[in-house]
Design goal:
- The chain is an alpha/beta fold.
- The N and C termini lie close together (9 Å).
């Protein structure tokens, strides 16, 4: 089996883990070798998602791969990509889909929108709709993305019926790190999230006062940056130079994830901080400044471990949750492990079924 795998490579930890673990799933369930041609979709963005750029890529791989796979990652995005020829983040719309005859699948992709972000344009909705209808399989990650397609973008039922909810690939296959259940936790890791745009940060943190509260609270914390922007917080476990030249490189993903074994609980702000916490069996408190983090917690049973920055007395709630998680004989800690074990088991079951159903003819 040979595939073209489109995604964002070598940019941040979240995209790398989603891409890598989807490839792990294919390897796990295939009886034959899986050959992956990874293609960084940023190369198409630089060319405006233009028809000639997409056609050139297609002509280069036609007859050489069995199918095209897109995801995971927050690739269903409009803001910042409205000037692309496609009208949105992905290079698919009627003018490119009409010549794509190789089977196309999207797995673990998410609707990415910041609080305060604008609505999808008609052109973006058309491109998204055409992609869903064209694809042989379309699975959105389990972070509330389906409900955003339904209630925010307002896709019709005739389109939504082709959309499945699948695990974010970043949740899967992390048991390989062998992190065991603990009966008391005390070593904190902080996984932050921040943006370069002051406007986005103002909406994300619900005001600059809250951002400064967090910067001060975690000024001495062991910090796990997932993007270059995250280095504003605390004491990062790596330098910016190491992140840029080593740890954000796709092939070095596990070298970074190994560093999570130095802590025994995490406060995570990014979606893939949540994924790593749950997948690696590291108890977490999830501080949501984006709807996708909050919605993931609520929809998957972790609402009691989520604090949203818009909550009244959120700062006090955060301190209370930390105390509950780290106290002796913590029921809160034990309950997290029980939730996690059942949830990750279900994620693997859904993943296996989807992979076998959609790719069965190539897995034999």
């Amino acid at each position: 089996m040979k595939i073209l795998h489109l995604g964002v490579y070598d940019r941040n930890i979240g995209d790398n883990i989603a891409l890598a673990h989807l490839q792990y799933s294919l390897d796990k369930y295939s009886k034959d070798d899986v050959e992956v041609i990874g293609f960084n979709i940023e190369n198409l963005w630089k060319q405006g998602n233009s028809v000639p750029a997409v056609r050139a890529l297609y002509n280069d791989i036609v007859g050489k791969v069995d199918f095209i796979l897109v995801g995971g990652g927050g690739l269903l995005e409009y803001g910042g990509y409205q000037n692309k020829d496609s009208g949105w983040k992905l290079p698919f719309w009627k003018d490119t889909l009409k010549f794509i005859k190789i089977p196309l699948f999207l797995y673990g992709v998410g609707v990415n929108v910041f609080r305060g972000g604008g609505n999808y344009s008609d052109k973006a909705i058309e491109g998204l709709t055409d992609t869903i209808l064209h694809a042989q399989g379309f699975g959105v990650r389990n972070d509330g993305s389906y409900n955003k397609l339904k209630d925010w973008i307002k896709l019709p039922d005739s389109v939504l019926e082709k959309v499945d909810i699948v695990p974010d690939p970043g949740l899967l296959h992390l048991d390989r790190f062998g992190v065991e259940r603990k009966y008391k936790v005390s070593k904190l890791g902080f996984q932050p999230a921040i943006n370069q745009s002051r406007g986005i940060n103002n909406n994300r943190f619900n005001g600059e006062v809250n951002l400064n509260l967090l910067l001060n609270k975690f000024k001495d914390a062991k910090v796990y940056p997932h993007t270059i922007k995250d280095f504003r917080f605390g004491k990062p476990v790596i330098t910016q130079e190491e992140f840029t030249n080593k740890y954000r490189v796709f092939e070095n993903l596990d070298l970074y994830l190994e560093k999570y074994k130095e802590i025994d609980y995490v406060i995570a702000m990014r979606g893939h901080g949540q994924m790593i916490s749950m997948g690696m069996n590291i108890p977490g408190i999830y501080l949501s400044t984006q709807d996708k983090v909050r919605d993931f917690s609520i929809e998957n049973g972790f609402e009691d471990y989520n604090i949203d920055i818009t909550d009244e007395f959120w700062f006090e709630k955060l301190d209370t949750s930390i105390r509950r998680l780290t106290e002796d004989k913590s029921k809160y800690l034990n309950d997290w492990y029980e939730l996690r074990d059942e949830f990750i088991k279900k994620c693997h079951e859904v993943d296996e079924k989807w992979i076998k159903d959609k790719f069965g003819q190539w897995l034999v």
